[in-house]
Specification:
- The complex is a heterotrimer of chains A (about 130), B (about 150) and C (about 400).
- Chain A is of the alpha+beta class.
- Chain A has 4 helices and 4 strands, in the order αβαββαβα.
- In chain A, about 20% of the residues lie in helices and about 10% in strands.
- Chain C has a domain of about 280 residues: Cytochrome-c3 Hydrogenase, chain B, CATH 1.10.645.
- The termini of chain C are far apart.
- The chains are: A alpha+beta (about 130), B alpha/beta (about 150), C alpha+beta (about 400).
- Chains in contact: A-C, B-C.
- At the A-C interface, helix 1 and helix 3 of A face helix 2, helix 5, helix 6 and helix 15 of C.
Amino acid sequence: MSLWSEILKNVFKKPVTIEYPKVETPIEKDFRGLQYADLNKCNGCSLCAIECPSKAIEMRKLPEDIKLKHNPRGLYPVINYPSCVFCYRCVTICPVNAYITTNEYRLATETEKLLSDTLSLQTLKSGGA
Amino acid sequence: MTEARSSELDPKQVLGNLVIREEFVKPSRRVFVVDKSVIREAITRLLKTYGETSIYISTIAGVDRFEQGVIEVNYFISIIPRKEVIVLRTQLSRAEPVIDTLIDIVPGVFAGENETYDLLGVQFNGNNTLKRGFFVPEDVVGKGVYPLRKDAKW
Amino acid sequence: MTETVLQIPISLEIPIGPQHPALHEPVMLKVYADGEEVVKVEINTGYNHRGVEKLFEMNSFYKGVFISARICGICNTVHANVYVRGIEQLLGLEPSPRAKYLRVLAMELERIHSHMIINAIMAEILGFDTLFMLIMRDRELVMKAKEILTGGRVIAEYYMPGGVRRDIDDVKKDRILDILKKIRPRLEYYKKLFEIDPTITNRLVDVGVLKPRDITLHSLVGPTARGSGVKTDVRAEDRYEVYGEIPWNVITRNEGDSLARMLVRWDEAIESLNMCEYILTHLPGGQAVVDERKLPRVLPLGEAFTRVEAPRGELTYYIIGGGRDRPYRVKVRTPSFHNIINSGFSYLGYSIADVPVILVSYDPCISCMERAILIKDGEKKYISLRDIVNMKRVR
């Protein structure tokens, strides 16, 4: 009995589904999305790789031609996104706050632009943007 | 009904002479160490004093103490009118861990006893529903390994 | 003229599960039925084992905060809370009052959306799909509130020993209060619908009646126990965090059938809504976020036993510290462990069509139920994401 008024109201309303590619999903600015290291601040201490609960971070040597004064060991973190659970332990444990956080959630893609080493190395070229 | 008066009784008075020593678990919960042969008597006394609808067994936790050579079995019991949780702790030898079952007095230990048998190898005398493979998958059961023991390798 | 010499009862064995369209998670109920009436039920588990108790012993106790959240997806906030409180008792840390209020806010929001989904599943099992869709549409508002508070819709990652990981300001507080104002008339409408609609009451009244004596002897907990008149709630007994300061009531009903259990859940959801509004209007000031770089690294010797009221019942953790950075033993006992495995006696005497109704009224969460050994993998091959990108180009 009391469901009839509800159904009648819903006949005259738009559907609730968000028609995704035409319309953007409303998402918060501080949603836990993609994160990568800013090499202008990173000093290669490897704390993020030690503390990651799913062992998704690997420390790799910087390319041959780059020498940074604040990074004597020459290591930088590369995150393997299929293993990452986005708990942000790496972001909060870093002693120099070197991680850049975004709210990017569309990760089911293999484009070059979303790989962690590309994003980190790009921060050096643009001079710390 | 003497329910209202008997819920004022302290568990130490109820258990009386069965307690060997008393310890503490944070945050300030009392532990009564009893011998493994009197566990049925202790539970029956608690059930009779507080009544069957005011007390239930919350958790059965087995701990493998490798250096001391014992396996401890802890029974955590919640007494609802006193808003308190007490612990009955028994110690079994690691070479032959056997203890009496409680399943005919309190049928709710069915899940806890099965889990402790499957993972740590503690035998409960009189419980004929115990079987391996309750939780542990079959290839590990085939090697005869009790996974939660400290020296388990498979 | 024939005489009856011997009567042999023949019962038919009907396996429900592990994969079945009526169940949401793999569990096997072997139902023996004589005609239409159930005479015996055997419950087999173990299809969803993941090895969590051994995993706790092999990793540092900070990684354990994230492991404990992943035992169950829908009650991840309460698992993380009880583990963090156990570690705080061993280390001797005390969170600030503002952090305690924010922790309770996250847990109560989770209680509202967990109760909404189990009622939607009950409607779906009965065949009432319209009601399932309507409840899920309104549940999206609660998920949005949780995203504003913690940064994630389902898994919150909000807890750390010593406090919480994020704070809220006035803009976020007003947005959450607006959302809560929109949800209140919907919850009251659904509760009234469950009480009077004949589609639901004809199948739920007098099905799966449990007496108080059965409940305490078989250790059933949570709304299952409160639907039969047993007044037990861990929030009132232990008074952890701020439950001793906020005004709230314990909800019980006396009939003991499946409808009483579902109505207890709707009443608790409305009670949680009142609690969330009280917390947001009475937040104390101060510092809530803890600096993770300055926390201690070694777990001292000692034992702690902590409990929490999850949406499904009483959840207990027993943590033993061993003087290193790894705990010596962590024992987890979830509410579904007792509610599902010990409840084989309650199906007897009812017909087969009542079996899924009784099972869903206990709120099964099978992935919570099963933890304990670690499966080692045979051979590992590492392929990084960049190799996959290159593979696609070469072809």
